[in-house]
Amino acid sequence: MEQNTSAAPTAEEIKAQQLLDEKEPENKLRTYSGPLGTLVTILFLVWAGFQVLANSFGIIDAMSLRTWHLLFLLGFTFLLFPAHKKERLKRAIPPVWDLVLLGLTFFTFWYLLHYYTVIARRGGYLQQPDLIIAGLAMLLVLEGGRRACKNLAVLGLVFLLYNFLGMLIPGELGHVGFSLKRVLNHMIWGSQGIFGVGIGVSATYIFLFVLFGSYLKYSGFSQFINDIALTLVGRSAGGPAKVAVLASALLGMINGSAIANVATTGTITIPMMKKTGYKKEFAAAVEAVASTGGQFAPPIMGAVGFVMAEFMGVSYTTVLLAACIPAFLYYLTLLFAVHFEAKRLGLSGLSKENIPNALVVLKTQGHLLIPLVVLIGLLSFGYTPLFAAVIAIFATVLASWIKKETRMTWSTIVKATVEGSRSAISVGMSCAIIGIIIGTVSLTGLGLSFGYIILRVVGEGQLYLGGLMVMLMSIVLGMGVPGVAAYVIVSTVSVPVLIQTGAVPMAAHMFCLIYACLSNITPPVAMSSYVASGIADSDQTKTSLIAVKLGLTGFILPFFFLDNPILLLGTGTDIPFLLTIRAILTSSVGVIALSAGLQGYLLRKLPVVGRIALVAAGLLFIETQLVTDLIALLLFGAVLAIQFIQNSSSLKEKLA
Questions:
Q1: Enclosing H/E stretch for 90
Q2: Dmax of the chain from CA atoms?
Q3: Whole-number Cα distances in Å, 405 to 219, 265, 354, 362, 412
Q4: Whole-model pTM above 0.85?
Q5: Region label for 313, one of left (φ > 0), alpha (ψ between -120 and 50) or beta (otherwise)
Q6: Beta carbons of 296 and 251 less than 8 angstroms apart
Q7: Minimal CA–CA distance to 278: which of 223, 343, 212?
Q8: pLDDT tens across 423-435, in order?
């Protein structure tokens, strides 16, 4: 909707941007006026066009694409990201030091592009200039990472130093040490370091789907999602919170950034929830949890699903099916949690005059669903995700032209392209730093050593104990890192460990993905919760703790499908269809019971004993064994019957 995109930002939106600048300094970028500002815009358009053409027609080989992609990433990083926080951001030209870095970047990557095949033809033998260029490339990547993703850059530096200092570490985590030449060869000139899988997924899936999300935003899709969510659940008890859940889920699965999703939808939903009567900590927590789950919710999963499919060597459809039940149960828990909280507090939904007419919404904005239908349709017919994403981007523009109110003009298309490309920089630089981490793991054998230590501590076949250790590591490594980047880091180290303890590959990958994403709401570095609490003016610690409670299913569920992948559809295991249906039904009832127990309300307020019984029933229901289901059914049925009798007695007393 062009009117919305060009309108002045609201107070909540300004506040959300200030919070992003505070929590993520990389969002505070330089701006240029005059000819240089125009040149930067043109460069963004050139970069986006290059990425679309390269991924659509395969005009260059994979290694060249990764090199060009990192060249653009570093160039824009040194142009736009300040070297320090206090730098003046409105400038006519970049600082002299950054002009030097830009020159070094262009020269270094020209050398890499020109001499890569030359070195390959002479058998990988490196001469002195090759090592100097590799050293320059490493320093440039670390400096770019420091500006765009500081926390991850520090972690990357620690891993890099491990290559040289590991010889000083005693025990299994130590190694014999590697020379500077060996490390630079592996990290820069090899295919398992900086130019490995991390920058590979950034140059393909991540860039295109971030760009696609930006085009959807500027077509008016965000407003459509909000309106359709209002028509579905706006009038029910706690309607605004349910709107936040649905809208954040639908937008989160596309943009792949929980923090950006909080800032986008939270400015609308959090004030609406507070106005309805929810406590500000609860309102912020709902938005944070809903935005976080979008990263593992089909059909797009914030591009993580495509990365997982490539890692596992399976089709994206397989990953999509496997993620369906975990994502469904996660959001079902959240919906019932806000419902029970609303009933407990006696909150009502929005009034009829504040709810748009469903038929009018579909008639005026329903055409904006066409790009998603096109994307899912192409994937279903076996086309590659890259081709489907490119076609979906063009379909977004064409769909917006159907109605005058949503028509994307040339200036809107330019804004969408620039914003999408700019959003890809931080994630892309994160992927470049991940290359250092992955390169260290592959060069030193750290992954094997770590897996051996865990197996020795927990014992062979101790799946749940091994899963607990991997869960803690996944949350720690995922803190403050974009969802895709967090998954790549965690899966590199953790997936082999889980497989060795007995998990099937799909369960191991999904386990790592969910916990890496949940780091966004896990204290002490709960970035999504902190941004949401800032918008709501709530206490950060309380907001984070409530978010953990609301997202509890996400923390519990992976342990159930780790040993019994019946909750992961299409994993290749021979599971009868009726048994799968039973597992879905019992798990659904289980998460409802869990939500009721945690919120303290089912048909009426629950006593402590009733809450404990429902939490126990919820956990037993999620476990898919027949015995546990029967026990859970008895517990749930008993609490439900008691509540029903109490309600009937209260009603008779009122009538009498």
A1: strand 90-91
A2: 96
A3: 10, 21, 21, 14, 13
A4: no
A5: left
A6: no
A7: 343
A8: 889 888 988 998 8
